[in-house]
Design brief:
By secondary structure, this protein is an alpha+beta fold. It has two domains: 187 residues, Fructose-1,6-Bisphosphatase, subunit A, domain 1 (Fructose-1,6-Bisphosphatase, Chain A, domain 1, 2-Layer Sandwich); 122 residues, 3-Layer(aba) Sandwich (D-Maltodextrin-Binding Protein, domain 2), CATH 3.40.190.80. The chain is 29% helix and 24% strand. The strands form four sheets. The protein has an eight-stranded mixed beta sheet with strand order 4-3-5-6-7-8-9-10, sandwiched between helices. It has a five-stranded mixed beta sheet with strand order 12-11-13-17-15, sandwiched between helices. Strand 3 and strand 4 form a beta hairpin. The longest helix is centred in the N-terminal third of the chain and has 21 residues. The chain binds 1,6-di-O-phosphono-beta-D-fructofuranose. 1,6-di-O-phosphono-beta-D-fructofuranose binds next to strand 5. One of its GO terms (biological process) is fructose 1,6-bisphosphate metabolic process. Belongs to the FBPase class 1 family. Pfam families: FBPase (PF00316), FBPase_C (PF18913). It is an enzyme of class 3 (hydrolase). One of its GO terms (cellular component) is cytosol.
């Protein structure tokens, strides 16, 4: 089976609004009921609000630490908390998500929409170390159809279904422009936010990652902690004069590599023997998107393809190697040479 991405459905002209795009693609699925479409709209709405909050953070006293730690033991930034509130509120008011699992919350957040068909796992604001220094940050989300009975609160099982059971996934990048990128399993599309009109417009109708590239993205400060095959791979990259590019915001590094080709690596380290990134709301959604764009996402030798992993707990971590197919392939080959 070729790993090149499937043709997405009817190509739509650049400049189509997100609203119109969602309506047109929905009409291609005879059994579509519009609930997933509404959920995507709710996420886009929260993204617009968070984009505004980020843009004026320095003026609105929402910069800096919040003074509390999240379940991961990380210092929460005020904007982490703001983004978390905004997304949970939008998903609650939208009525389609019966529950949310967030990086900023210990357990399941029940929205009260017990008839809701979907659950959402979300990293409301990715790139915490860059929030207050005006460097690109993002939101990452993953959507599942619930397995628990309608009319009852969601359960753990709804969130621990595994990467392949994702119905849709994507991210919002708050960078020089704000972009929404997502897949529903029919290719990857990107929308750019025009804040003066309050609209996302289709700017990337069919996102395909180049088969290879000359960029590697990792925190080389962890070099001495890296497994030998990773150090060997990075040495080989440097010998062929690849460029090191590391923003320190997963969404920003990932998005760049998706457009121009490259590989992002967050290997296991002594501090994080299972890697740093969270499986449910960082690695699964980005693995779904990259595979739909023709790339690859692996947890490393002996751990396998990220999409095949079955989670056992909510804030579980995993190593992540993702990007252009042949670069990830080469990295995995290092272990056996
Ligand atoms: O500082 P490090 O160890 O390089 O880690 C940076 C990585 O951790 C993250 O910040 C983790 O995400 P959060 O900011 O959501 O906790 C990624 O965005 C980034 O790629």
């Amino acid at each position: 089976m070729s790993h090149r991405p499937l043709e997405d459905t009817i190509a739509q002209p650049v400049g189509t609004t997100l609203e119109r795009y969602i309506m047109r693609t929905q009409s291609e699925f005879p059994y579509a009921t519009g609930e997933l479409s509404q959920l995507l709209r709710d996420i886009a709405l929260a993204g617009k609000i968070v984009s505004r909050e980020i843009n004026r953070a320095g003026l609105a006293e929402v910069a800096g630490a919040f003074g509390q730690q999240n379940v991961q033991g990380e210092q929460q930034q005020k904007l982490d908390v703001v983004a978390n509130i905004r997304f949970i509120r939008a998903l609650t008011n939208g009525g389609q998500a019966c529950a949310v699992l967030s990086e900023e919350e210990d357990g399941i957040v029940h929205t009260g929409n017990v008839q809701g068909k979907y659950v959402v796992a979300i990293d409301p604001l990715d790139g915490s170390s860059n929030i207050d220094v005006n460097v690109s940050i993002g939101t990452i989300f993953s959507i599942y159809r619930r397995v628990s009975p309608y009319g009852a609160p969601a359960t753990e099982a709804d969130f621990l279904q595994g990467g392949r059971r994702q119905i849709a996934a994507g991210y919002i990048l708050y960078g020089s422009s704000t972009m929404l990128v997502y897949t529903t399993g029919h290719g990857v599309v990107g929308f750019t936010y025009e804040s003066s009109l309050g609209e996302f417009f289709l700017s990337h109708p069919r996102m395909i990652i180049p088969e290879t590239g000359s960029i590697f993205s990792c925190n080389e400060g962890n070099w001495h902690d890296y497994p030998e095959y990773v150090r060997d791979y990075l040495t080989r990259c440097k010998e062929r004069r690849c460029s090191g590019r590391y923003v320190g915001s997963l969404v920003a590094d990932y998005h760049r590599n998706l457009l121009v080709g490259g590989i992002y690596l967050y290997p296991p380290t002594q501090k994080n023997p299972d890697g740093k990134l969270r499986l449910l709301y960082e690695s699964f959604p980005l693995a779904f998107v990259i595979e739909q764009a023709g790339g690859r996402a692996e947890a490393g030798p002996g751990r396998g393809r990220v999409m095949d992993l079955i989670p056992t707990h909510f804030h579980q971590r995993t190593p992540l190697f993702t990007g252009s197919y042949s670069l990830v392939d080469e990295l995995l080959g290092m272990e056996t040479t």
